[in-house]
What does this fold into?
Amino acid sequence: NTSSASSRRQMLQSSTSTEKPIVSPIVCLGFGDAMLWDVSDPSRQHFPVYVKDSLLNTNENFDYTEFRDLAEKIAAPNFTLTTFIYTFSVAGVYTFADNADEFRITVIRVVSQNEVCPTSPYEPYTQSSLVTMGVTRERDLLLAPDWPLIGSLVGALVVLVVGTIFALWLFRRQRWGIVGTALPDYRGLGIRALEDKEFANLASKGSTTKRHQLTAAGDERVQAPPGSSRPLTMRLDIPITEFDADFFCSTIAEESAVDESNVLVLTTTDEGKVIVRFVFTGIDDPDRAADFLIARISAEGDEQSELHSHLNILGFEDGAREAEYDAFTGAGGHEDGQLMNIAEMEDEFWDYERQIDLEGFNT
It folds into this structure.
């Protein structure tokens, strides 16, 4: 073995003297051969270092203590060393790097006792040379977890979760509270009206708007055509859902001796009971038809019209004369026969509505 190492050393010296040196060689050694390194550089920075994490290494139990001791000896100021030799007694692949330049590596392939090296024991570090020397990378790797990175990610996740929970708790704690308010009077009045089933005392904003359309001059939902009669108002004892405009017009036309097309409904208002505002139009003397209808409604005894039973009239108002008429007890009218003054009933109702609006505004 010693002679073999000497001959290899001579071969290396002769090759380096005549050929360009190989910066990163792949060396093939026989079983038990030694490798010699020149460590005489004055800077004391160039010496071999074993790369224990290289994927080319195959001897996991390789003891590289001598290479660590070499670094300590070269670093000693009073110690001079020019060469370093190491004998490889175990077959395998070993990777070394220059201490001053980690990219200058030396790969040593030690063959077993039954193997021989290729013709050239020194080859440059290339992929083809690795294949020729029988050197392959380790593929079945089990990498150790990066605990600092894993700890940082877990810590950041914990901080994010805790911060989110704290922010939600702080938001719920510091949010604006709901200030309690006293129940307005108009709500109490409405609740009592519902309990007593006095639905006529309740109204929505829609009926309020209809009331303004009914009473304000020129604001009728349907404008009376020129040459129409004075407007007449009739309160019927039916809900607005049961009101049939065609039946109403045909009944009025029959009682007034006019055609159904001559009766025009201007507005219908829902105030618990239906209030219908209508005129006669399209005839020579529309006011005469209105007078005739009033006479038919106000007739008593045997002359009483069947109009009351057909339309269930509660009250009737002539827009020109402000006359009020009895709804005739027993003829579909009011139970006690009391005169139903529509104007007074509606004024009282809308006074109540205005009171509700004012109380709601004040609240």
In short: The first strand starts at residue 25 and ends at 29. The chain has a mean pLDDT of 75. Residues 83 and 319 are 133 Å apart (CA to CA). The radius of gyration is 58 Å.
